[in-house]
């Protein structure tokens, strides 16, 4: 009996110690289950934005350049480019949708030739359809996009530290990082738009003559716009979670107070 009672007392002490450690861990984190759930929802929203951002920056369908179809030829030329490389494509005119005056879309099957931009390595401008890129603008768009991805990674790290280690002070830092990331992605899109305009205007005087072109923005750029907006929205949600409750309590009094 004495051994059995000692065993029960030891088991009770062990349970109390475990519950005390859990209580200290919860006190250390300082996050209620409701707060933790809201932070996880905001993190899920920013994860969607991060996926769109990586998809946008890593693909080369930001803009499509299309030549006009010629009646005396069975093929036509199109191109699509992004931040890092460009692809020229020779398409069969029979595959082009009926009623379309220009070659494309670039997603049609055809003979493709893709090359990375050399202004990242040797500093040379690229030539597309007898037109020359303005490397300073293209470089600026790429650098701004990369900096945006860095801020996005820092924001993810901060929120993970908040959920895992209870570092609540990093929540506001993560919110600011996500907001800056979305803003920088939108700035990168605007800079890239200026680079496209500069490309169309920089026509080479050397023969053969430059063909007439039309351009249209493609799905990679649409992903970038969505990523920027979603990241800014996610950062705003995280920032709202860092605000104290009393300003909203004064604006929205409880039902009991109104009744009195």
UniProtKB/TrEMBL annotation:
Alphabetical keyword list: Calcium, Calcium channel, Calcium transport, Cell membrane, Ion channel, Ion transport, Membrane, Transmembrane, Transmembrane helix, Transport, Voltage-gated channel
UniProt subcellular location: Cell membrane; Membrane
Membrane spanning residue stretches: 41-63, 139-163, 170-189, 217-241
Biological process according to GO: regulation of calcium ion transmembrane transport via high voltage-gated calcium channel
Primary site of residence: membrane
GO cellular component terms listed in the entry, alphabetical order: L-type voltage-gated calcium channel complex
Membrane topology designation: Multi-pass membrane protein
Pfam families: Claudin_2
UniProt KW DNA repair keyword: no
GO MF annotation, one: calcium channel regulator activity
Residue numbers spanned by region Disordered: 14-33
Matches recorded under Gene3D superfamilies: 1.20.140.150
Highest taxon of source: Eukaryota
Family: Belongs to the PMP-22/EMP/MP20 family. CACNG subfamily.
Biological role: Regulates the activity of L-type calcium channels that contain CACNA1C as pore-forming subunit.
Protein name listed in UniProt: Voltage-dependent calcium channel gamma-6 subunit
């Amino acid at each position: 009996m004495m051994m059995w009672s000692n065993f029960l007392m030891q088991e009770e002490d062990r349970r109390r110690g475990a519950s005390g450690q859990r209580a200290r861990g919860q006190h250390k984190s300082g996050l209620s289950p409701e707060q933790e759930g809201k932070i996880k929802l905001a993190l899920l929203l920013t994860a969607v934005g991060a996926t769109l951002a990586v998809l946008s920056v890593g693909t080369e369908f930001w803009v499509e350049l299309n030549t006009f179809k010629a009646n005396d030829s069975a093929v036509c030329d199109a191109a699509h480019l992004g931040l890092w490389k460009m692809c020229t494509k020779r398409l069969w005119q029979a595959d082009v949708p009926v009623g379309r005056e220009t070659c494309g879309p670039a997603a049609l099957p055809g003979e493709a030739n893709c090359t990375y931009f050399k202004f990242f390595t040797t500093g040379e401008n690229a030539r597309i359809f007898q037109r020359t890129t303005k490397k300073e603008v293209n470089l600026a768009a790429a650098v701004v996009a990369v900096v945006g991805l860095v801020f996005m990674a820092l924001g993810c790290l901060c929120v993970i530290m908040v959920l895992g280690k209870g570092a609540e002070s990093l929540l506001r830092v993560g919110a600011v990082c996500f907001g800056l990331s979305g803003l920088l992605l939108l700035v990168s899109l605007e800079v890239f738009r200026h680079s496209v305009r500069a490309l169309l205007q920089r026509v080479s005087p050397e023969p053969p003559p430059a063909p007439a072109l039309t351009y249209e923005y493609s799905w990679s750029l649409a992903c970038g716009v969505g990523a920027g907006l979603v990241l800014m929205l996610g950062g705003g949600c995280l920032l709202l979670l860092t605000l104290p409750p009393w300003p909203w309590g004064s604006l929205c009094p409880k039902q009991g107070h109104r009744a009195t």
